[in-house]
Specification:
Number of helices of chain A: 1
Oligomer: homodimer
Pfam families (chains A, B): Cupin_2
CATH architecture of chain A: Sandwich
Keywords (chains A, B): Metal-binding
Helix content of chain A: under 10%
Domain Cupin type-2 (chains A, B): 46-117
Order of helices and strands of chain A: EHEEEEEEEEEEE
GO molecular function (chains A, B): metal ion binding
Largest interface: A-B, 44 and 44 residues
InterPro entries (chains A, B): Cupin_2, GPI/OXD, RmlC-like_jellyroll, RmlC_Cupin_sf
Shape of chain A: globular
Largest sheet of chain A: 5 strands, antiparallel
Structural class of chain A: mainly beta
Strand order of the largest sheet of chain A: 1-2-9-4-7
């Protein structure tokens, strides 16, 4: 059956972010739809942000494109250009290597949900606002030292 | 600016389907979001189906995964398992090579819209209901003869 029963797909708020950097994503509940549905050309996540939650720390990938489409509720897209409200049906694309860190923040009093499409990180990821960097699949300080 | 202004992205109902096989997709109006936004790891289309329109002829790809999420309106997903109503927020995945032909049909009286994610067809595509086949990037009859 191609239609997915989201309720049967495990939902997680797990994160590899170290220490307090994990706090903004504690209310980010995601389902990995690609492994659950037998596709692997790209990754697809169904993400619910509880009030106050962020999609991630603000970041950009050196080598992986990302795309999001809002399904319900309201989020604020923060990037180098400023802040942009995202409503259901709104789409945003984040080209690899563009150096423009981005994050979705739920500043509303209700859940919001979106679909995110991308690929597993195989390149460095940059976090312009915090002393964190992703390289070789692990988070380190910007000077390369371990957490 | 990562948020896409859909109104500025060209909309097309073009199809390569030969003859009358093109009729069900005349009311399929799509925007190619990936080239418009600078991403190329995967393709993303924003598709509006007018009342009566189909997303495609029923088909399955040998080598490309597909994923859709409904944004508005209502469509009927037809595949080997039967018919399934798709409403806003509903997701469906179509794994490559599964042999299960699929199509979204708008049988309602209003437009519906969805996002489709995939990759450009580089393998054969099979159309179980009609005498058409995609191979080497062109449509032929099932016996390999030209239209």
């Amino acid at each position: 059956m191609p239609k997915l029963d989201l309720d049967t797909i495990p939902q997680s708020n797990a994160t590899g972010y170290p220490g307090d950097y994990a706090l903004p994503v504690q209310g980010r509940w995601y389902r990995r739809l690609a492994p659950a549905s037998g596709i692997d050309d790209f990754g697809v996540s169904h993400v619910v942000l509880k009030p106050g939650a962020w999609s991630s720390q603000r970041h950009w990938h050196e080598g992986e494109d990302e795309f999001v489409v809002m399904l319900s509720g309201e989020a604020v897209l923060v990037d180098d250009a400023g802040e942009t409200v995202m409503l259901p049906g709104d789409c945003a694309a984040f080209p690899k290597g563009d150096g423009n860190g981005h994050v979705l923040q739920n500043r509303s009093g209700a859940d919001c949900a979106f679909i995110a499409v991308g690929r597993a990180s195989q390149t460095d990821c940059h976090y312009p606002d915090i002393d964190m960097h992703l390289t070789d699949g692990r988070f380190v300080h910007k000077d390369g030292s371990s957490f």
